[in-house]
Amino acid sequence: MSWLVTGGAGYIGAHVVRAFQKAELAPVVLDNLSSGIRDFVPSDVPFVRGSILDGELIENLIDDHEIEGVVHLAGFKYAGVSVQKPLLTYSQNVTGTAVLLGAMEARGVDKMVFSSSAAVFGSPDVDLVTEETPTGPESPYGESKLIGEWLLRDQGVATGLKHTSLRYFNVVGSGYPDLYDASPHNLFPLVFEALLRGDVPRINGDDYPTPDGTCVRDYIHVADLAAAHAAAALRLSTGEAIETVYNLGSGDGVSVRQIMDAMARVTRIDFEPTIATRRAGDPARIVASGDRASRDLGWTMRHDLDEMVRSAWDARRSAE
């Protein structure tokens, strides 16, 4: 029996695939390569190029590879861009998830780990986000992820689907030198590309009510995130009790200034970031508790900030 990993050729998905291999959960990848990279998928892992909007393809894939469960990462993930492209976001993330669930139901596959997002919370006015914090997404992307969680919930009631959703903030670092974050929207690659061009990275606002005046966020290492997905799949496979939602958070967070300082230390490129005005809608602090995931999934922050930066920097340079 195998596990289908949708979006398994992406930065996060490729790490999940290798975590599944380590856990002896045979992965099969489905990816349309709109943002994924084919070489990220190990040569010994079955790969199917296709869309989660193609229900017939998914049903045939389930039959061909004896799929017992699905880890669902595929989708349109850029929160800012989703405001300009809401229909694309809903098509990929809501309709795509519904089609995937329909194919699973048609073929009797009853286990799913959903890669959700802390974007479902919006800008919560709390010091520490927990699973009980009210949701309030502020972008089509966040809304689409919350609807995805609702779809799983309702399928659980209707068909007995066993499921869990993992919510997380900023994913950074690399677990392997050949896997890197190529996103044009994420902070780490944006800073790296600026440094490689000889430009000076920018901080948007340094007058927030935080210790150093810059925004504080959760940053988690991609290998730790991938391990949590594998742990959740194992619990579903063995029939152990599992919660429907887990936050994968650090509990304390780091500031943008701290990240810039770590970038200078690790890259050995001495720079002083420029300070721009605040971006509209940026809350001062969003940090989540990972206590529930620690209890059930063995979740822990195994990498400090410098290790996150160093692994990401090494992977980015190896891509040249």
From TrEMBL:
Annotated protein name in UniProt: UDP-glucose 4-epimerase
One of the protein's GO biological processes: galactose catabolic process via UDP-galactose, Leloir pathway
EC category: isomerase
Family statement: Belongs to the NAD(P)-dependent epimerase/dehydratase family.
The enzyme's E.C. designation: 5.1.3.2
Cofactor(s) demanded: NAD(+)
Protein origin, superkingdom: Bacteria
Pathway(s) it belongs to: Carbohydrate metabolism; galactose metabolism
Every NAD-dependent epimerase/dehydratase domain range: 3-249
GO molecular function terms attached to this record: UDP-glucose 4-epimerase activity
Recorded catalytic activity of this chain's protein: UDP-alpha-D-glucose = UDP-alpha-D-galactose
Family annotation (InterPro entries): Epimerase_deHydtase, NAD(P)-bd_dom_sf, UDP_G4E
